[in-house]
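Appendix B, Record 12. Input sequence as logged:
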Amino acid sequence: MAAAGSSVQEGAAREIFVFGPFRLDAEQRRIERNGEQVQLSARALDILLTLIRRAGTVVSKSDLMASAWPDSSADENSLRVHIAALRKALGDGNAGVRYLTTVSGQGYCFVGSISRTDQAQPEPSSPPYVHNLPAHPRQMVGREQTIREISERLRGQRFVTVVGPGGIGKTTAVISVGYAMLAEFAGQVHFVSLGETCDAALVPAVAAASLGLPARSTDPSAGLAALLRGRRMLLILDCCEHV
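Logged structural output:
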């Protein structure tokens, strides 16, 4: 359970970290996932704050133990227990998402992408993202690396093609990527299935319908372009090779 800290005076600056679907308020000692509070022990939260404040650098085990147990001694086993609890609470490693990494013989490092804001007033809780992704695949054995690689390519390229023989699970993998990147695209992830579209001329209409644009008798391409032009969006075109 997140520990209660000292109250913050109204109007005072607040240190807030945002990563993936999580929002961590350092002063209030509260972490939320899509607006829902995540239960963490006080020591696990101290460890997480230390790692996030030094994100991208390896924090030694001794430094982490000093931050979580400043007035008492602790052994490395206690640290490992709290690191394991953190990973479980953050879903670290699920669907290729990675926040914490272990550096053998040295310590731990926070490797997630973080944005930081200092706000005078608390933000309202964000509602769950609305998207049209198919149900999240529950059985993804041995695909974590594939999901991670596709996600990394999407961070550096505007267009990524996933190819391979039929039946190997390409659609399952890209749906998982969509879920993994929902927060990075602020919920703007849309799935367009073209498996039953035989005419390439119909692709704009199918895409427009998937994005919620009103049906038009004329070519919807102009409206589709106008909608997409000012947005940062992950658009997944499934089974598109024949059109």
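The longest strand covers residues 14-19.
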